[in-house]
């Protein structure tokens, strides 16, 4: 009796799987034109994203050589964590992220809050003005800022000279190089963040503000009690994206300091770049990349669990 029941259950499960498979293929065939349009993008993703990621993970357990790789287990990970330069780069990247991400999000929120009450023409003007640096190459921006930090003729030393201060070698001193890079990142307008916040603010139900006005709430109280809570999902999105970007900071480093002086501005991605393409230690570089991946994932999970909207 039990044998018959088990056989019947297996037959039912098999029938259910076959029905689901048929439904899936039927759904794909029904929307075949849409899937054909998606196919090139999917192929590019698999070839240039998924395959390199999987290969890098496998490579992190090997000592790569053109004539043949050797399996070394966790040796590359042990070497990475024993490296003083890698540990310094972890700390520098962490400091850079902790300082620049809140500055990015708060600046975007404040500017968007000031622009949102304006008319449509004014909003369009400020959207374009603040978004313009976003479409400019970071290489060009870094070159301009390197000129501004120049010891002999940079504008910053020119300004502090008005107040009687001595010129500062902003990018040539270990105690000022990393703060100089962070100042640069903070002062670049967060164009994408402003655009996203403005779009989210325009979707907030205006009846909430009307009710708050009737209750006598001031403009700041409405911003604090209505705008900021309603923007929580947008803030979470921007925090995660900007954190990922900060952990991957590279262009400013290679264009302005090269990781120096000493290792004062060394960051994780710059170390990975040097390990792979200067020292040709691709296995070690892959292990460092995997470590960076898990660090970003842990930060993203922590931020999601902390900032997600529970209501």
From TrEMBL:
<dbReference type="InterPro" id="IPR035906">
    <property type="entry name" value="MetI-like_sf"/>
</dbReference>
<dbReference type="InterPro" id="IPR000515">
    <property type="entry name" value="MetI-like"/>
</dbReference>
<feature type="transmembrane region" description="Helical">
    <location>
        <begin position="282"/>
        <end position="302"/>
    </location>
</feature>
<keyword id="KW-0812">Transmembrane</keyword>
<protein>
    <submittedName>
        <fullName>Sugar ABC transporter permease</fullName>
    </submittedName>
</protein>
<keyword id="KW-0813">Transport</keyword>
<feature type="transmembrane region" description="Helical">
    <location>
        <begin position="235"/>
        <end position="255"/>
    </location>
</feature>
<keyword id="KW-0472">Membrane</keyword>
<feature type="transmembrane region" description="Helical">
    <location>
        <begin position="177"/>
        <end position="200"/>
    </location>
</feature>
<feature type="transmembrane region" description="Helical">
    <location>
        <begin position="94"/>
        <end position="116"/>
    </location>
</feature>
<feature type="transmembrane region" description="Helical">
    <location>
        <begin position="33"/>
        <end position="58"/>
    </location>
</feature>
<keyword id="KW-1003">Cell membrane</keyword>
<keyword id="KW-1133">Transmembrane helix</keyword>
<dbReference type="InterPro" id="IPR051393">
    <property type="entry name" value="ABC_transporter_permease"/>
</dbReference>
<dbReference type="Pfam" id="PF00528">
    <property type="entry name" value="BPD_transp_1"/>
</dbReference>
<comment type="similarity">
    <text>Belongs to the binding-protein-dependent transport system permease family.</text>
</comment>
<feature type="domain" description="ABC transmembrane type-1">
    <location>
        <begin position="90"/>
        <end position="303"/>
    </location>
</feature>
<feature type="transmembrane region" description="Helical">
    <location>
        <begin position="128"/>
        <end position="148"/>
    </location>
</feature>
């Amino acid at each position: 009796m039990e044998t018959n029941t088990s056989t019947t259950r297996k037959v039912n499960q098999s029938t259910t799987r076959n029905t689901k498979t048929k439904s899936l293929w039927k759904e794909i065939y029904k929307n075949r034109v849409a899937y054909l349009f998606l196919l090139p993008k999917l192929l590019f993703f698999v070839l240039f994203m998924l395959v390199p990621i999987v290969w890098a993970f496998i490579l992190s357990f090997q000592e790569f050589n053109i004539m043949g790789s050797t399996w070394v287990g966790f040796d590359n990970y042990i070497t990475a964590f024993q490296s003083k330069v890698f540990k310094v780069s972890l700390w520098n990247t962490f400091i850079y992220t902790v300082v620049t991400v809140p500055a990015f999000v708060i600046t975007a929120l404040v500017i968007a809050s000031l622009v949102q009450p304006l008319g449509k023409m004014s909003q369009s003007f400020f959207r374009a003005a603040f978004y313009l640096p976003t479409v400019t190459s970071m290489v060009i921006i870094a070159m301009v800022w390197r000129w501004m930090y120049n010891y002999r003729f940079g504008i910053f030393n020119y300004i502090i000279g008005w107040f009687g201060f001595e010129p500062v070698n902003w990018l040539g001193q270990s105690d000022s190089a990393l703060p100089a890079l962070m100042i640069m990142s903070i002062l670049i307008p967060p164009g994408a963040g402003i655009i996203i916040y403005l779009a989210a603010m325009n979707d907030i139900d205006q009846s909430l503000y009307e009710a708050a006005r009737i209750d006598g709430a001031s403009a700041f109280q409405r911003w604090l009690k209505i705008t900021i809570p309603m923007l929580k999902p947008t803030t979470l999105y921007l925090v995660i994206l900007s954190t990922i970007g900060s952990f991957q900071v590279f262009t400013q480093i290679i264009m302005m300091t090269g990781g120096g002086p000493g290792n004062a501005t060394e960051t994780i991605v710059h170390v990975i770049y040097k390990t792979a393409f200067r020292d040709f230690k691709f296995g070690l570089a892959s292990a460092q990349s995997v470590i960076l991946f898990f660090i970003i994932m842990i930060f993203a999970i922590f931020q999601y669990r902390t900032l997600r909207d529970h209501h």
